[in-house]
Amino acid sequence: MTEQQLPAWADPSVSPAALDAQGVSRRGLLRRAGLFGAAFALGGAATPAVAAAGRGHGGEDPRLAYLVGDHHVHSVYSHDAKYTFAQQAGAAARYGLDWMVFNEHSNFGHASYGAALEHKEILEARAANPRQLIFQGLEWYIPAAEHCTVFATPGPHEVDLLTRFELAYDGKLLGYTEGAAGATDTARNEAHAVRAIKWLAEQRRSGYVDDVLVLANHPLRLGIDSPHELRAWRDAAPEIVIGMEGAPGAQGAAIPGRRGATSVRGEYENKPSAQSWAGYPADAYLTYGGFDWATATVGGLWDSLLAEGRLFSVTTNSDNHRTVFDTWKNGDWPAGQNFDNTGRLPEPVNTATPQAGSDFWPGQFSRTHVGVTRYGYRAVMTGLREGRVWLDHGHLLDGLEVRLRREHRGGRGVTLGGRLRVRKGEKLILEITVTSASRPNPQGTLPQLAHVDVIRGAVRGAVSDRDTWRAPDTKVVSTTDVSGRKGTYTLRVPVAVGDESCYLRLRGSDGNRNGTGYLGASVDPHGPIPHEPGNGDPWADTWFYANPIFVDVVG
Fold first, then answer.
1. Are 114 and 344 in contact (CB under 8 A)?
2. Local structure of 529: helix, strand or coil
3. 3-state secondary structure of 430
4. Given this model, what pLDDT does residue 56 score?
5. CA distance to 75, 139, 219, 287, 387, per residue, from 517 (Å)
6. What is the structure's pLDDT at 55?
7. Which residues of the chain, if any, have pLDDT below 70?
8. 133-141 and 241-247 as β-strands: parallel, antiparallel, unpaired?
9. pTM over 0.90
């Protein structure tokens, strides 16, 4: 395998003068964590990241560096995309991504031809981009439901795993798409999705691959991922199914004047169908500040999963197929060729004229930040599994570090995705360290964070109704105005421990578009709101979200 290099911002051999402002800022955060240099040594693709993955001593978490990535990127090996690996990886490098997943659509042409051809190009892309971690993945059509990202660590069986999985378990290839309530094949199809996840878990347990992860994509776009299905996938293998897209790709879909008067960010422009779960309201099919209703609704579906006391992460990504304002088009097919008999689209052609598109390049707008203590493929996957994740749009922040600790004991405490065991009545401090944006974003504006919200929810354990999407005890409990604050600063929010276990999560925005949250002002007085159809400039309404920290009351 090609020798991997650290990203330029993390590489001591790269002069600070060669970095842009954000690279300098990220290097400063790495120094602050005590990880710059040998401490951030490369971990091999198949080498366990040692302490990088595990919790620190005494129940505390280590200091972390955050790697920026995207788990949902398409290429010429997806039937509805158009870019080469070189174009996507080059754009990702330009916009500061450290890791990415090429996540091609399941298709007979892909399974029969494309996956193997793709793997050869993946190897070439890794060699050509040694400062990036490039995963090969698959966008699985879940039987009876939507899509998922499936990806594994690089290794001798990565492409074989994906191909075997695609042929045996893909809903589109098998014709297992029926998911309507009461339909003849729905129960069979839902059960097949669970079997698929268990099969992946077995490949990891057996050592056939070092690691494999699954994340549900655009969960409420069509309303066909029911709450009970999400819970069934998670419960089948929680170490494999670790979460969902909190915000979909296609964030440029509603830039005024581009796609029409009915366009919505994320291409969330659908109505309930016979396949949709009937318990979702019509408003669930929209995005709120660019985020899926399941994530954006305080006390909603994401919170109902967290209120069971189990980690379920959120991410954001480009889902890049066709970039807004880009001038490339698909090439023409040679006579007798098509996707089904080649598994690969023709080379794209530059027209010099803007083409239709809804997406941003990887890292241009949507970024998922994953906490690690070493650099490498396994470290990224373990950071995702541990839930050390925060996400932003529009390059809103350079850095975010969150710690929950006991008020009088000092120490590092626990961070995102972690658990702190406490006794009733203990006093805790939630420390939120923000590093503001250090440079103009790709749109040319310097983002400014306006507020930070703390959201708290009670943990009540497993639900009796597995189709519930409400967490009635979750609400915004603290809002801090940070308008005008620059550089790195720390907010300290007191947290009182009551009788019940709970979780805390964070959210914030540029403050441009806020309103009463979906479940009312008493739950969320200034949350994200939908935009007018056709008028959703994403750069003018940007948010960050962070994964939860759990507080387990033990006595």
1. yes
2. coil
3. strand
4. 41
5. 37, 32, 20, 13, 25
6. 47
7. 1-2, 42-59
8. unpaired
9. yes
